[in-house]
Amino acid sequence: MAGFNGMIKSEEQIAKMRESAHLVAQAIELAGAMVAPGVNTLDLNEAAEKFIVENGGYPAFKGYKVGSQTYQFAACISTNDAVVHGLPNATPLKEGDIVSIDIGVEKDGWYGDGAWTFAVGAIPAAWTKLMQVTRESLLMGVAQAREGAYLYDISRTIQDYCEAHGYGVVRELVGHGIGRHLHEDPQVPNFVPGRFEGGFPNIELKEGMTFAIEPMINLGTARVKTAKDKWTVLTADGKPSAHYEHTIVVRKDHGEILTK
Predict the structure, then answer these.
(1) What's the distance, CA 14 to chain centroid?
(2) Alpha-carbon gap, residue 53 to 240, rounded angstroms
(3) Domain around 54
(4) How many domains does the chain have?
(5) pLDDT (tens digit, 0 to 9) for every residue of the chain, 260 residues total?
(6) Phi/psi at 249 (nearest 5 deg)?
(7) What would you measure as the largest C-alpha separation in the chain, in angstroms?
(8) Alpha-carbon distance values, 63 to 12, 66, 163, 251, 254 (Å)
(9) Where on the phi/psi map is residue 151: left (φ > 0), alpha (ψ -120 to 50), or beta?
(10) CATH assignment at residue 84
(11) How far apart are CA 229 and CA 139, in angstroms?
């Protein structure tokens, strides 16, 4: 695993990441405070982008390329059965929706990434519990990000907690390393890979490694599908999904959250 030592960031580099991650957290908080019936997600996106740019950052998702496709917005905003990568649009939010706001920021060559799920007014109790468990699983995973632990300690903690509540843990989408690039090695799954789920080395964690941990948890099946817009990932059964994400740094005893 010696090849993964390049993932370790210096304290100076972590300080740069903390600036970007702080803008992520503030932009999500700003957009989240706007969430209400009648507000559309284009307005949330516009407010977040304006805040990021005014504070010296760049919205990392805007212009991000996947194959021949280019993402056009500052935020991924996903409602109800949209797991991630939802496109902001003019459809008003309505009472009883849930909406996940996912934002990345680049500042001075360093990246932060985060996400949070918000309720639109009163929502079903089962949806509230889904949000709570997903959020708790993230914090439990962050607590495992300590020197000498292994990557799968994060994965196992998230998976076990969410599956104990009967939820589906998405397999097709995972967390990731982060730093000079929005997406770096290693991939950080929210589950312990099975025999035929390769591509996730169970590396030993070292202080200074930086990850974006992001459980994507479904009320029903773990299976997902891609919408006709070729971006939005939906639950296969139409049930809601929650998404929470922090950019963190591995420390001696626990993970330090940078997206505060």
Answers:
(1) 19
(2) 32
(3) 2-257
(4) 1
(5) 445 666 899 999 999 999 999 999 999 999 999 999 999 999 999 999 999 999 999 999 999 999 999 999 999 999 999 999 999 999 999 999 999 999 999 999 999 999 999 999 999 999 999 999 999 999 999 999 999 999 999 999 999 999 999 999 999 999 999 999 999 999 999 999 987 677 799 999 999 999 999 999 999 999 999 999 999 999 999 999 999 999 999 999 999 999 99
(6) -125, 135
(7) 52
(8) 28, 10, 35, 33, 34
(9) alpha
(10) 3.90.230.10
(11) 32
Please, are residues 25 and 35 in contact by the beta-carbon 8 Å criterion?
Answer: no
Task: Spell 204-219 as b/e; 16+ CB within 10 A means b.
Answer: ebebbbbbbbbbbbbb
Cβ proximity of 252 and 207 under 8 Å? yes
Radius of gyration of the chain (CA): 17
Burial class (CB in 10 A: 0-12, 13-18, 19+), 87: buried
Structure tokens at 71: 């993402």
Which of 130, 39, 132, 121 is CA-nearest to residue 77? 39
Concatenated DSSP letters of 169-214: E-SS--EEE-SSSSSEEEEE-SS---TT--S---PBP-TTBEEEE-
Q: Contact at 8 Å (CB) between 160 and 196? A: no
Determine the 3-state secondary structure of 85 from DSSP: coil
pTM above 0.90, yes or no: yes
Q: Decide: 184 and 115 in contact? Cβ < 8 Å.
A: no
